[in-house]
Amino acid sequence: MSPIHVRARPGDVAERVLLPGDPGRAEWIAQNFLEEPVRYNTHRGLWGYTGRYKGVPVSVQTTGMGAPSASIVAEELIRLGARVLLRVGTCGAVDEALAPGDLVIAQGAVPLDGATRQYLGGLPYAPVPDPLLFRALWAQAEAKGYPHHVGLIATEDAFYATTPEEARKWARFGVLAFEMEASALFLLGRMRGVRAGALLVVSNQIGASELYPQEVLQEGIRRMVEVALEAVLEV
């Protein structure tokens, strides 16, 4: 079946793909980090761009919000030739040690989302990233000296459903932060034989009434993209 949502042709998408949820962020990454970016998809607001980073082809593809949308995009990218899928997004912290704009390198994702559950048919499973990609992300964050944390995250469906009290329960088991796509992405990486990972920026504390200041968040995003691009060149 030809891709229905990512309306690109074979050759339009690079083997290495960064996956932000926000189309505006996809455009910003392409314009500020890639050489000669070309937009290959606009359908359904799933903007996708391919250019070069240090001479290597790299794509940036919007996933939309949530594991169902991210799963659709990931499946279609793989059909188009993608072999490294790296989520670059934001997360809500539940561990008070995480400061505004800090990076989070996901070591595993608690699958609280429905997409992962449907793929597994309800079987218990522990979604984890590709080890080489995970190691490359950690090494790059260390080398650049950017504040970062390594550990578990949780993937959920309902952004407004999680209360601070519920989130803190997960913190007791080592969960650093909540987001909405990584669990399904890790699972699909294993199922389809591609490398998948997640690098996140702390945008807020769960339960806070607003996000951190834009300038703090934007600097964190810049650092995240820099680390992500250097890491995908290693795998």
TrEMBL record:
Catalytic activity, EC: 2.4.2.3
Source taxon at top rank: Bacteria
Entry-linked InterPro entries: Nucleoside_phosphorylase_CS (IPR018016), Nucleoside_phosphorylase_d (IPR000845), Nucleoside_phosphorylase_sf (IPR035994)
Domain Nucleoside phosphorylase: 16-229
Keyword hit for Transferase: yes
Reactions mediated catalytically: uridine + phosphate = alpha-D-ribose 1-phosphate + uracil
Keyword annotations: Glycosyltransferase, Transferase
Recorded family membership: Belongs to the PNP/UDP phosphorylase family.
Protein name according to UniProt: Uridine phosphorylase
Organism: Thermus composti
Lineage, broadest ranks: Bacteria, Thermotogati, Deinococcota, Deinococci, Thermales
